[in-house]
Amino acid sequence: MIEKRKLGTNGPDVGSLGYGAMVLEGYYGGSDDEQAVGTIHRALDVGMNMIDTADAYGNGHNEILVGRAIAGRRQQAFVATKFGIVFDERETGTELPTGWGFSLKINGRPSYVRKALDSSLKRLAVDVIDLWYAHFVDPATPIEETVGAMAEAVRAGKVRSLGLSNASAEQVRRAHGVHPIAAVQFEYSLWRREAEAELLPTLRELGIALVGWSPLGSGFLADTVTSLDPGDFRQNNPRFSGQNLASNRDRFRPFIRVAKELGVTPAQLALAWLLHQGQDIFPIPGTRRAERVEENAKAADIHLTPELLKRINELARPGLAEGATLV
Ligand SMILES: NC(=O)c1ccc[n+]([C@@H]2O[C@H](COP(=O)([O-])OP(=O)(O)OC[C@H]3O[C@@H](n4cnc5c(N)ncnc54)[C@H](OP(=O)(O)O)[C@@H]3O)[C@@H](O)[C@H]2O)c1
User: Fold this and answer.
1) What's the pLDDT at 326?
2) From the candidates 28, 57, 112, 188, which is the catalytic residue?
3) By CB neighbour count within 10 A (0-12 exposed, 13-18 middle, 19+ buried), where does 269 fall?
4) Can you list the residues of the chain whose pLDDT is less than 50?
5) Is pTM, for the whole model, over 0.90?
6) Which among 60, 71, 167, 238 counts the fewest CB atoms within 10 Å?
């Protein structure tokens, strides 16, 4: 069983590795609902109990799927979901450019926050959400207003703790002044280390956990992605497009060799490296396959010496990857 850690200074104890359910919507290749439920069950079995979803994943379908999987196992699951990316065409929002050739429509207005909460509770079929994030900060709504409305949900007993996703250090500080923030979700992996500069020190000062999204670099660091199907969402990611995928594979080959030397898989080494960055880091790898859940869970048992960590840091140094990225 994966060890539990405190999510934020005053937060609940959750598995140091969580499970990211987004891949179950076919963004990185087809997925099947029956298999998906089995995969989430395996995550709960091994103690990856923070199950991460969002209302926008599969336009609501991912929350329904997670709700199905945790029915009867509610006490074991720590349910984390997000709101704020508008996926219902009847709703309004502010365009947020992603730098990936498309914009997201974001709504953090209090009236939308309340509506989104009730919809998520219904889809998940739960009375209370363990961790509720604003998926992106709405550029047109002061963050204090968004978080103020989220705090009402805590007072009403519908949400246990609050989070922000893709927020800056300054936004986190402002939000935390309105209501304690337990966790901030941000991309963090061996090929995305921007969080280390300003965000992570601020989170540490405030006692907030960092939940690392795409901890395997959307699969890249597992060394199994050699090409992408035309419909694969990662086609939008400059790190995978054109010549960059092949070039990045070359650049990360020395890291892959370290995994082979240690007798672990590259995915396990990438996750173990993240877990060694601090007790306050919670990676949430996604996979459609139950056997990979087990493989990834074993990363929590890997001990990396300071010498090995130094070597990995040198081989996969910040800035090594080619291609600009989101946020
Ligand atoms: N807050 C945000 O804005 C945001 C953005 C993106 C993601 N997220 C969250 O972060 C979670 C994880 O991110 P992600 O799914 O983008 O990326 P990820 O976890 O870095 O990588 C997932 C990919 O890695 C592959 N994989 C997983 N374990 C593997 C293993 N042991 N060996 C080989 N391949 C393996 C999976 O393929 P298979 O399915 O074939 O195993 C999948 O394609 C998401 O589910 C979501 O909950 C949040």
Assistant:
1) 55
2) 57
3) buried
4) 327
5) yes
6) 71
**Cβ burial, residue 156 (10 Å; 0-12/13-18/19+):** exposed
If one residue of 287, 294, 295, 325 were mutated to test the ligand 1 pocket, choosing by the most ligand atoms within 8 A of its CB, it would be 287
Residue 325 is predicted with a pLDDT of 65
Residue 53 CA: nearest ligand 1 atom is 47
Class of domain 4-315: alpha beta
- Residue 61, amino acid: H
165-178 pLDDT tens trace: 999 999 999 999 99
Domain limits, the chain: 4-315
Q: Is 57 known to be catalytic?
A: yes
Residues with Cβ within 6 A of ligand 1? 20-23, 28, 52, 165-166, 185, 213-219, 222, 224, 265, 267, 284-289, 292, 295-296
Assess contact for 203 and 184: CB atoms under 8 A: yes
